[in-house]
Amino acid sequence: MASTLNVSAYLFTPLDDPAALRSALREQAGARGLRGTILLAEEGINLFLAGSPDEVRGFIADLRADVRFAALRTKESWSDAVPFGKLLVKVKREIIRMDRPEVRPQDGRAPAVSPETLRRWLDRGADDDGREVVLVDTRNAFEVDYGTFAGALDWRIDRFTRFPDAAKAHRDDLAGKTVVSFCTGGIRCEKAALYLRNEGVEAYQLDGGILGWFDAQGAAHWNGDCFVFDEREALDPALAARAGS
Predict the structure, then answer these.
(1) Rounded to whole angstroms, how far apart are CA atoms 141 and 94?
(2) Which residues form the Rhodanese domain (predicted)?
């Protein structure tokens, strides 16, 4: 049985001291023997960590004790070994770069659709009001090539900063439809949904991203695997490293 717990999480929350937090979190995660990456910015936190279950969960519990991170939600998966070479804690301008300062999820989330609701919509072929549902994959093209939702729009972007221009170029494909943006864990599709709403599109984010969908709905409406940014390379809909990884 796999003994290494992998956890991913992010939260858009205002931070006025990301540099000071960097030192504290580096010390706490290091003391617990964790490896992976923690990104901090004035807009929040994004992390991917692995280690023994007690130490990973202990670190997350300590993090949530800070009122700014109390709402942090994690996604767990398992592996036979730690899929990270070292621990990195970095301060960035954005925890996920979009280069659109007017998009501020730390001030309020875009409306989210649960995996259960999206499953109902996809099963029936329309949302609860009978509108056509369009899925927009906000990930990079090479990630999409590992797997995506059946029928999802893929604009072949090579970095997330290209998403706004792609959305404008394909604006007519979204008009009058219920749009659901999705990504690996939720962070990119949260910004994407806010951007689309600013542009007048009826957009929602898939709550929990693809990994949350796998946990709740398995392989339903999904083709392939999901690329992840660690040594496992990709996870299947059972949240296990795909064969050969």
Answers:
(1) 21
(2) 129-222
pLDDT tens per residue, range 174-219: 999 999 999 999 999 999 999 999 999 999 999 999 999 999 999 9
245 pLDDT more than 70:
no
pTM, to two decimals: 0.94
* Enzyme catalytic residues: 183
Distance of CA 109 to the CA centre of its chain: 14
pLDDT average, residue stretch 105-130: 97
> What is the rounded distance in angstroms from the CA atom of residue 83 to the CA atom of residue 229?
9
3-class secondary structure, 60? helix
Distance separating alpha carbons of residues 225 and 80, to the nearest angstrom: 19
CA dihedral 144, 174, 185, 91 (to 10 degrees): 100
What gap in Å lies between CA 219 and CA 179, rounded to an integer? Answer: 21
Q: Is residue 1 predicted with pLDDT exceeding 90?
A: no
Q: How many CB atoms lie within 10 A of CB 123?
A: 10
